[in-house]
């Protein structure tokens, strides 16, 4: 195997989570056959990029993808705030073009449409792209790549802004993807990228955010190296708490001095992330969480109490399958209509609407989307008021 970004063959192991089903590979029935694949993470000392070793055909992962970004008020608010700020800071007008790659159901672009700005989305999941199109958001239901970048450069004279939220982790041919962004971007344009930050994943032991659709786990050094290869310069970086800790990166064709937050994060990386030994105890810490969580669930079950899962998330699939805890849960609830009635990958737990939580009032709910803990526990205040308890597994197993 070679590094997908720089081509180095000198890759080092970070963690091996064993053979895992596809994290969003929800089943129509519990006895539906499902494939598993090795889920191993490796580190490239040459360009500091962490990536999974196994390449899965994206069509297998995204063929009937069910993740709707509009399912979270946290995401909707974060996107609306970013759009308002970008329109203001970039002085966008109706003559501007804003492109979003992985535009999902239009959760972000709808804010530009409301402001009268021309938009173009790319999303390979036909059903989800149809939702955006039905809301008046021009969307190409295909994977973005270099040739789409070239095509739309000549069809539109280029993009003033390109958004790419939580997509760069998913693209095996990442050089072609970034080249496409560079071609499509106007000379004075900006690409605004959001992606989970590997420092948060390692420091908070968020091993459950490792799954096959997340090919890459970025550090700032790895992003700078990747962008520079395609004539893009990282000029501004912010560190967000969303999705368990993310980077928001502004990149453009001209080079300006990196902002202070970006400089501090970058200097910090040179003392930690880019030296492989930063990852050395990650596997042990993941095992500790597995031990603590399994012991807690076993203890609760020995007291004759019951437990359900809350959120049929991709991270929940990695957590449940790596920890082998499906046996302790009765079912999972989730607010995504297209997931309800299906079964979780590997653990084969049926997925119900969240209303079932109050109907059944199980003693405990294991929060499988802990990154939305505040939003979800606020929504389920009635369940808590009536004595229900949430178990939050990451970064430390605790009952709230
Ligand atoms: O990169 C990705 C990250 C950003 O989101 C995607 N590849 C896949 C996805 O990962 P995830 O499935 O672990 O994401 P979330 O956003 O942590 O989990 C969302 C799940 O939680 C959805 O299935 C909806 C559910 N949910 C819920 O049932 N009630 C979410 C909220 C906020 C709620 O109130």
Notable traits:
400 residues; alpha/beta; Rossmann fold; 2 domains; 7-stranded mixed β-sheet; 6-stranded mixed β-sheet; binds ligand DWN
What can you see in these coordinates?
By secondary structure, the protein is α/β, with parallel strands linked by helices. It has two domains: 69-270, 3-Layer(aba) Sandwich (Rossmann fold), CATH 3.40.50; 282-399, 3-Layer(aba) Sandwich (Rossmann fold). Helices cover 34% and strands 22% of the residues. It has 14 helices and 17 strands. It has helices spanning 58-62, 73-90, 109-114, 126-134, 146-156, 174-184, 198-203, 220-228, 260-270, 282-302, 314-323, 355-360, 373-379, 381-385; strands spanning 12-21, 36-43, 50-52, 97-101, 118-122, 139-140, 159-165, 185-196, 216-217, 233-240, 246-252, 307-310, 332-333, 351-352, 364-367, 389-392, 398-399. A seven-stranded mixed β-sheet has the order 6-5-4-7-8-11-10. Strand 2 and strand 3 (50-52) form a beta hairpin. It is globular. The termini are far apart. Ligand DWN is lined by residues 67, 71-72, 166, 213, 243, 311-315, 334-336, 339, 354, 369, 371-372, 375-376, 379.
């Amino acid at each position: 195997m070679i590094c997908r970004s720089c081509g180095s063959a000198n890759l080092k192991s970070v963690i091996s989570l064993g053979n895992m089903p596809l994290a969003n590979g929800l089943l129509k029935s519990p006895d539906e056959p499902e494939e598993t694949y090795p889920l191993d993470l490796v580190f490239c000392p040459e360009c500091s990029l962490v990536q999974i070793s196994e390449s899965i055909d994206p069509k297998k992962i995204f063929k009937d993808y069910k993740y709707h970004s509009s399912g979270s008020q946290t995401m909707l608010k974060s996107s609306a705030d970013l759009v308002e700020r970008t329109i203001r800071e970039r002085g966008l007008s109706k003559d501007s073009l804003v492109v979003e790659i992985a535009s999902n159901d239009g959760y972000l672009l709808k804010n530009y449409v409301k402001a009268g700005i021309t938009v173009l989305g790319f999303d390979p999941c036909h059903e989800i792209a149809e939702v955006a199109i039905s809301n008046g958001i021009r969307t190409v239901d295909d994977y973005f790549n270099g040739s789409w970048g070239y095509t739309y450069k000549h069809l539109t004279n280029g993009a003033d802004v390109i958004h790419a939220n939580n997509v760069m982790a998913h693209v095996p041919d990442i050089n072609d993807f970034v080249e496409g962004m560079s071609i499509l971007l106007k000379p004075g344009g900006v690409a605004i990228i959001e992606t989970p930050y590997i420092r948060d994943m390692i420091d908070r032991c968020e091993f459950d955010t490792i799954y096959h659709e997340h090919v890459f786990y970025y550090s700032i050094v790895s992003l700078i190296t990747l962008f520079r290869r395609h004539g893009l310069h990282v000029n501004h970086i912010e560190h967000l708490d969303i999705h368990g800790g993310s980077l928001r990166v502004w990149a453009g064709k001209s080079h300006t001095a990196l902002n202070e937050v970006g400089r501090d994060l970058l200097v910090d990386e040179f003392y930690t992330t880019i030296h492989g030994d930063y990852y050395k105890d990650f596997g042990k810490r993941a095992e500790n969480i597995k031990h603590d969580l399994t012991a807690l669930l076993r203890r609760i079950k020995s007291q004759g109490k019951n437990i359900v899962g809350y959120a049929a998330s991709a991270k929940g699939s990695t957590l449940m399958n790596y920890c082998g805890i499906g046996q302790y849960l009765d079912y999972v609830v989730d607010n995504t209509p297209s997931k309800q009635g299906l079964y979780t990958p590997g653990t084969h737990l049926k997925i119900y609407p969240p209303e079932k939580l109050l109907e059944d009032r199980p003693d405990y709910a294991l929060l499988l989307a802990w990154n939305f803990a505040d939003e979800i526990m606020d929504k389920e205040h009635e369940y808590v008021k009536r004595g229900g308890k949430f178990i939050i597994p990451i970064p430390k197993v605790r009952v709230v």
